[in-house]
Fold this sequence. Notes:
By secondary structure, chain A is mainly alpha-helical. Chain A has 7 helices and no strands.
Amino acid sequence: xxxxxxxxxxxxxxxxxxxxAYALTRHAEDADDxxxxxxxxxxxxxxxxxxxxxxxxxxxxxxxNLYINAYHARRRRGVHVGLDDAPPQSAPADQESGLLARxxxxxxxxxxxxxxSLLLLVGVEDFSYEQAARLLDIPVGTVMSRLSxxxxxxxxxxxxxxxxxxxxxK
Amino acid sequence: xxxxRVPIGEDDLQAFIDGxxxxxxxxxxxxxxxxxxxxxxxxxEDRRLRAALRAQLQPLFDxxxxxxxxxSGLRAARRSRGLARLRAAAAALAIFCAGAGGGWLAHGPAxxxxxxxxxxxxxxxxxxxxxxxVVEVAHPVEVRAAQQDHLMRWLSKRLGRRLAAPDLSPQGxxxxxxxxxxxxxxxxxxxxxxxxxxxxxxxYVQAAHGTETAxxxxxxxxxxxxxxxxxxxxxxxxxxxxxxxxxxVAEAVYRQFEAAGT
Lengths: 170, 262
C-alpha cells in the first residue's frame, strides 16, 4: 500500500474505531486513548500489512487486542471507576421506547467481552461473519453459535430489567 | 414438499436478523417464522435490539474526529519519539558499560544458586514478567530490536551464555526487543515478540542449575507458559494464547537453542 493510500485508509476508519472503542470502554477519553494507541500501532507496523489483506479486520483486531491487554491490566490493579462506569440505574426510566435504546448499550456491558465484541462487530460495524471469525480467531460456526447466545442473553437481561422497572412502578 | 427442504437453523435466524440472507432462503425463513409465532417474537426483538444499538452509537460515529487522532499529527509525534528512544537506548548501554567496568553488579552471572529453580517456578516468574511488560505501549522493551546486536551481546554477557534471539517469523512473530530482569541473585533476559495483529509473546531465559526437563505447561488466568530446563538454563515461552497455539512456538525456540549447540 502506498504511503498516502495507507494513511487515507486509516483516516477513513477512525469514526468506526471510535465507535467500537467507546462501546467497549463506555468512557469517551479512554476510548480515544485506545484509538490513538491503535493508530500508532498501525502506523508502526504498516510494512507488515499486505495490501491485499482485509485492512479493516486487521485494524479492529489491533484495537481489540489493545483493549483486552489494557482491561486485564486495569482489572489486576483494581482501580479507576469513572462516573461513566457507574451503573445506569440513575437514568430516569420514563419512556418505554427510550428505555429500550438506552438499555441496549448498558445491557451489552453485562456480557463477556467476546460476546459484546461480536455483537458490535457484526451488528454495528457490519463485519461479515467470515471477517468476524478471522478477527476473533474462531471458526465461523462458533461465530454463529456465539451470536445466538449473545442475543439470547441480551434479551434476557433486558426482559429482567423491564420486569424490575414494572415492579418498581407498581 | 417441505420435507426435502433444508431445515431452518439458528444460523439462518442470525443471518436473517443481520439482514444478510439472500432471496430464496430469506423467503423460507419468513415462511417458517410465520408458522412459529414464538420464534418470530424472539427474532423481532433481536432485530429491534440490533437497530437500537446502532441508533444509540450513531451519534458517536457522526461526531467530528478529535484533532489528536489526525494521522499527520501522530506521524510527526512518532518521529520525534523514535529519536528520543534511540537516545535512551544509547544512554542505557552507556550506563551498563560503565557499570561493568566499575565492578557494578560484578558477581558472576552464572553464580551458583542456593536453590535451583524448578520449571514451574520459572514459569511463574516468566508469567509475572510477561504481565508487567506486555501491557506497556510506550516502553515494552528496554532495548529495541533495531539494536539487536547490542541487545544480544548485552544479555549474553549478563546471563553468561551466548544468546541468540530465536527467529520466530515462521510462527508469525517478530522480535520487538528485550530487557534484563532480576531473578533471585542472578539475571534473567526477557525477549518480546509480536505478530501482525499486535499479540505479544515473551521468551524468558535465566540460569537454572538442574537436570534437563521436558516441557511443563502452566496456565495462570489467560496467560499460558511452556517452561523447561536445558543445559543449565531455564526457558519459558509465555503468551495470552491457547496451549495448542503456543506449543509450536515453544518447540521452535527449543529447536533453535539446541541447534545453536550452546
